[in-house]
Design a protein that fits this description.
Blueprint: H1 2-27, H2 33-57, H3 64-84, H4 91-109
Helix pairs in contact: 1-2, 2-3, 2-4, 3-4
Length: 113
């Protein structure tokens, strides 16, 4: 349980730091808005992929469950943030959550590669 909490906190810190850096670059017009939105999405997926890969290396069997755990945890976190900010649930949000679920799953499946 301790390794999961440590890994989730590490992932949240990585996402927060990357988002803050990208936001500052966008704020000072160093990064265009169109590139900013794509980089923000890509950074979340890359962070989830590699951290689930790292977590599944310690698992001996059923490594895909590690990816499912990470995916479900972050779907829960992002949906709570979505509810708090009173955003409308749309097909775009559903696709985003589906990709959040699939990315760590793929990362945990390809642990040996």
């Amino acid at each position: 349980m301790k390794k999961y909490i440590k890994n989730f906190i590490f992932i949240l810190l990585e996402i927060t730091i990357i988002t803050l850096v990208l936001t500052l670059l966008n704020y000072f017009n160093i990064l265009p808005t169109s590139i900013y939105s794509y980089l923000e999405l890509a950074s979340v997926f890359i962070i989830l992929y590699f951290n689930s890969k790292k977590l599944s290396r310690n698992s001996s069997k059923l490594t895909f469950l590690e990816g499912i755990k990470i995916g479900l945890f972050f779907i829960f976190i992002f949906s709570i943030c979505n509810i708090i900010s009173k955003n409308v649930f749309s097909i775009r949000t559903f696709i985003y959550y589906l990709l959040i679920m699939l990315t760590p799953l793929l990362g945990s499946i390809t642990k040996k590669a």
